[in-house]
Amino acid sequence: MSASGSYRVFGRADVQPLTAAQDFTAIQDAIARCRHYRKDHGLYGVVDPTLGRIMLEIGAVGAVVMPAVLGEQVRESLNGGQKRGGPGYDTRGDRGGPIIAHPRSGRWTFLTGPTDDSYLDDALFSDLFRVCASLALPGSRIVLPSPTDEHSRYRTWIAPPERDFRPELAEVVAATRACAVH
Questions:
Q1: For 85-122, b where at least 16 C-beta lie within 10 A, e where not — what string?
Q2: CA distance 70 to 72
Q3: What is the mean pLDDT of each run of 10 residues along the chain (182 residues)?
Q4: Coil, helix or strand for 100?
Q5: Is 134 helix (H, G, I), strand (E, B) or coil?
Q6: What are the boundaries of each domain within the chain?
Q7: In Å, how far are 22, 61, 103 from 78, measured between CA atoms?
């Protein structure tokens, strides 16, 4: 952690600590992005003033986290079996999105409609556990991509939000289970 309180990647010579002015700018950029998420996409996150991250509490929005390889299959399944940009792909929107990529860990997070009690289902837990996937628990928080995250490629959008559309949690879970079998 640098003196300004910002976390940095250790072991990389090209990463320099942020100055206080850069910290301030990063937080202002995160606040502007957070407003955009709220106004245009119904994603009511808040900016953590210490880290400058946009935090979203799980509840009204659900989340399913999985390895990127499985995520690609789930996304294709939710889009009717059409690869993005392939023949017959519906260019009006990504029906599997919004999807957040975590390139360093090789994971994707699918944002969904409201969470439900499915996290209490032992069989679902086992099915997801076998493929290294999980449901975000109600009350937990996920981090939405901020300008700083995108610049550092720490967290980016695979499929950015379109208006306030999010697939139903059950839809994403069913696609995940179906793709895990193949």
A1: eeeeeeeeebbbbbbbbbeeeebbbbbbbebbeebeee
A2: 5
A3: 39 48 82 96 93 93 98 95 51 77 96 94 95 97 89 87 96 96 78
A4: strand
A5: strand
A6: 20-181
A7: 40, 18, 21
